[in-house]
Amino acid sequence: AGVVTYLVDLSKLTYAYDERANTVTVALPPLELSDVALEPEKAVTLNGGILTFSQAQVDELLRLNWAEARRAMTKQAQQEGFVTAARRQAQDNIRTIIQRGLPGVGVSFE
Hints:
Elements: E1 2-7, E2 14-18, E3 23-27, E4 32-38, H1 55-77, H2 80-101, E5 106-109
Parallel strand pairs: 3-5
Antiparallel strand pairs: 1-4, 2-3
């Protein structure tokens, strides 16, 4: 199990206010993928007791498995559906922040 976080560098965010339309138009920078946070405590290990490994072998297998899990999660997190969902969430968060500070102002995204 693991967690992937998408980041938005707000210092690269640009916006424009249309006074006539009372709307802020925001251009989000590209999302950045943070490091994958694996949660080994949620992992399940199955062992039928058929093979016996030394602790060094077990440690090496775990290291390789976690490295592969990290690669697989990173690849999955880059898929269009996940990125689109993360972008929508970022837009919702930014819309909420703007509208709390400027009630009644519309917010649109490029």
